[in-house]
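protien #1 (seq + structre)
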Amino acid sequence: MPERARPSSDEPLLDLPADENGMSAEALENQVQKAQEALLSLKRQQDHIERQKRELEELSRRQEQLNLGRTEMVEKFTRAIVVLERESYGARKRVEMLESIHESFSAHMDALEAINPKTWDGLDINKELNKALSAVDDARAEYATNVPKISLESDGDSSDAMAISAGYQFDYAHEAQKDFLYWLKAGFAFTLPLIILGVIFLLVLLSSASHSSTP
């Protein structure tokens, strides 16, 4: 068998004859190029898949954030609505109570302002005086019962608050300890209507006595 001619050093490698497997260098290079293109395509697909994975993870995170936020706010609004309904009910009841107290105070005010001993001439003064004193006692009892309900401060002295609104001034530093002067003023304020009515009654009696003694 004749010996295969060896290529000269000036001939390119691409011109080599087929190797033992029958594949030329050019075909091998084509296969390598195809393999590289396949790898590049796989790399692109991998990048695309990884990008889609990141997008799906971001969507999943935002979806979870939406669900958590929605659940949180629904729970908060549910609790808030319950509180609002309870407060609204309490506010309506309080308004009804205040309106009732207002009507009662106005009625007592009208009754007290209607007391006029000057119109008792010719009437049973003792009976009229008893009615007037009874009206004062009823007004005082109504006032003492309902004034604490007016103030929103549960631990405050509502009667003092009412007195302040009427123009009185109190020393709150000594509110817990009320001295003798305080109770003296309070007793005087409570008995002042009785004193006034007693004076009026005496004046009426003196006037009646003077009229009866005149010939």
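ok now protien #2
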Amino acid sequence: MKRLGCLLALIAVTVGGRLTAQQSRPDFSGAWTTPGSSLSIRQDATTLTVSEGTEARTYNLDGSDSRFSNARGTQYTARTRWVGSALVISTTTVSQIGTWEDLQVYSMDYGPKLTVVNVFTQTTRPMMGTETRTYQKR
């Protein structure tokens, strides 16, 4: 967990280093694509809904818990927070194989680009990975 906190701080500094506190929060709405993947995002003043394939998740933008589950009984609890104009989503997963926490950082790059950094961990079996995808607006 300590390592995850340090990694989140590093991502926040990396993503937020170019940003100032006075910048407005971006609207991530739209259809986004990158080779091999696409997402659709709807955003309003209180929620962000991310759809990828047949899966859609709605996150509360006020920092309160967002809860969802899948057909196999896996439970997800997510919280959002803004770091400058980047949106950080922390999701705790509880499943039959264990519990872990994942982070996603959404940021708008210059032009019509969306970058999503995924940091995934699993505390029951020490493992960690990072994936970065940059999407173009369709």
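The first strand starts at residue 30 and ends at 34.
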